[in-house]
Amino acid sequence: MKTNTNSDSELQNRTAQRIENKAELPKIDLVKRRRNRSLPTDRLLALLQKEAPRLWELAEVVGKWVWVQFEGQQPPHITAELSQLGFHWNNRRQVWQHPCGQIMEGANYDPRRRYGSFFPADQQPA
Question: Which pTM value belongs to this model?
Fold first, then answer.
């Protein structure tokens, strides 16, 4: 199916939109990301508290992993920051997950029930 374009229109096709959006995305240092993915839980939490306090407030420790969940979609700069810190998106659970050096296969159960979970920010003295 051929799409007719109107040169006066500011609307773009999907390819043009993707190219335009890619130019806006922050660069990710893949060496730093790889190093951050191997951090143990306590060191990752310290890094979050120091460098990304708004993410630390959302961090949930599930077993030895750290999860961050948002109500809706976050802006690209937050996505890039999470990726730089070593998090990956889990589409099935709709959370950002950090393996804290514990790379494992996906589970068909709820890790929160099996391993327990807590929010470190809630345990800090006021």
Answer: 0.69
